[in-house]
Automatic annotation (TrEMBL):
UniProt name for this protein: ABC transporter ATP-binding protein
Top-level taxonomic group: Bacteria
The entry's keywords: ATP-binding, Nucleotide-binding
Coiled-coil regions listed in the entry: none
SUPFAM superfamilies: P-loop containing nucleoside triphosphate hydrolases
Classification via Pfam families: ABC_tran
Species name: Streptomyces flavalbus
CDD domains, per database record: ABC_DR_subfamily_A
Domain ABC transporter residues, every copy: 18-245
Length: 296
C-alpha cells in the first residue's frame, strides 16, 4: 500500500488524506501560520520539519481540527478538518502526556477504548491488537509511571490506534528519546504506513527526514518546501535535508530582504525603469520554493 507517488496513492474516492489551501492561523494576536498550501497523499509518512516555534504544532492542530484558521481551509479525508465523521478516523498523539501515569498500560487502553464507546469483546480485541501493533506485550501490566520515555510514547501511540485511524497525526513523538528507541518507533510507523495508515509526523530532528516519504519544511509560519526528499535534494543541489533546509532559508531570507527594500524604495517614476528590472529578474528557482507543492 505504501507509496510515495501522490498520483499512485490516490484512493478510490480520489482524495488525498489532507489538502490545505491558504491556511492562515493567528494565536495570541500574532499570525503564526501564513498561507500554507500542501497535500498529504494517503498511505505515506509525511514529516513536518522545522525549528522550534516555526508552527509545526499549530499546523497539526489545524489538521486535527482543534485550531480554527483565520483564513484558508483544510480538508481531511474529504471533510473539513474537525468534522464529526473524522472523529473516529483521525488519531492524534500530542506532545504533552495524554495517558494516566497511575494506571497500568492495559488499564489505560481499556479506559480509552471504553471512552471511545467500545464494549465487551470489541474492546478486548482492540486492546490486544494495539498491544501487538506497538510491541507493548512485555510491559502491559506495568504502571505507566514506571515506564521509560520510549515505552511511554508507545502507550500514547497505542491509544491513538485503538480506533484504527486512517490518518495518524503525531507531534514530535520521538522528542527526547535515544537513537535506538527512535529507530524502533520509526519501524512501528513504517509498519503502520505499509498497512495503509497515513502518518503526519512533526520533528525538529532533520535526520528523521530520511524516514519520511514526503516532507513539509517550515520556517517562521511559512512553508519553504513540500516535496519528497530526492526532489528536494535535486532542486537545491544539497546532499542532506539539513543542508537543503539551510539553503532554502538563505534563499527565503534574501528574497524577503529584497522585498523589504522594494517596499522602502520610492515608487518608480515610469514602468520599465531600473527599479522594476530587479523584480522581474528574480531567479525562478528562488521563487519556486515558496508554498509550492513539488510533485514527486
Ligand atoms: N497558546 C498560544 N498562544 C499564543 N501563541 C502561541 C500559543 N501556542 C503557540 N504560540 C506561538 O505560535 C508560534 C508557533 O508555535 P508552535 O507550537 O506551533 O511551534 P512549533 O514549531 O510546534 O514549536 P516546538 O517545536 O517548540 O513545539 C510560536 O511563536 C508560539 O509562541
Amino acid at each position: 500500500m505504501r507509496q510515495s507517488d501522490p498520483g499512485a496513492t490516490a484512493p478510490p474516492d480520489g482524495l488525498p488524506a489532507v489538502a490545505a489551501y491558504g491556511l492562515t492561523v493567528a494565536r495570541g494576536g500574532n499570525e503564526v501560520l501564513r498561507g500554507l498550501s500542501f497535500v498529504v497523499p494517503r498511505g505515506c509518512i509525511v514529516g513536518v520539519l522545522g525549528p522550534s516555534g516555526c508552527g509545526k504544532t499549530t499546523l497539526l492542530r489545524s489538521v486535527v481540527g482543534v485550531q480554527q484558521p483565520t483564513s484558508g481551509h483544510v480538508q481531511v479525508l474529504g471533510h473539513p478538518a474537525g468534522a464529526t465523521p473524522l472523529r473516529t478516523r483521525v488519531g492524534y498523539v500530542t506532545q504533552a502526556p495524554s495517558v494516566y501515569a497511575d494506571l497500568t498500560v492495559l488499564e489505560n487502553l481499556r479506559y480509552f477504548a471504553a471512552a471511545l464507546g467500545m464494549r465487551g469483546w470489541r474492546r478486548e480485541d482492540a486492546v490486544v491488537r494495539v498491544v501487538k501493533e506497538v510491541d507493548l506485550a512485555s510491559y502491559a501490566d506495568k504502571l505507566v509511571a514506571r515506564l521509560s520515555g520510549g515505552q511511554y510514547s508507545r502507550v500514547s501511540l497505542a491509544v491513538a490506534l485503538l480506533n484504527r485511524p486512517d490518518l495518524l497525526v503525531m507531534d514530535e513523538p520521538t522528542v527526547g528519546l535515544d537513537p535506538m528507541v527512535r529507530r524502533e518507533l520509526w519501524a512501528v510507523f513504517g509498519r503502520l504506513a505499509d498497512e495503509g495508515t497515513t502518518l503526519l509526523v512533526s520533528s525538529h530532528v532533520m535526520d528523521e527526514a530520511d524516514r519520511c516519504d514526503r516532507l513539509l519544511l517550515m520556517r517562521s509560519g511559512r512553508l519553504l518546501a513540500s516535496a519528497d526528499r530526492d526532489t528536494l535534494l535535486g532542486h537545491t543541489g544539497c546532499v542532506d535535508v539539513e543542508e537543503a533546509f539551510m539553503r532554502l532559508v538563505e534563499t527565503a531570507t534574501a528574497a524577503e530582504a529584497r522585498a523589504a527594500q522594494r517596499r522602502a524604495a520610492p515608487p518608480d517614476p515610469l514602468p520599465g525603469l531600473p527599479g522594476l528590472v530587479d523584480q522581474a529578474a528574480a531567479p525562478a528557482a528562488e521563487r519556486s520554493f515558496f508554498a509550492v507543492d513539488v510533485p514527486s
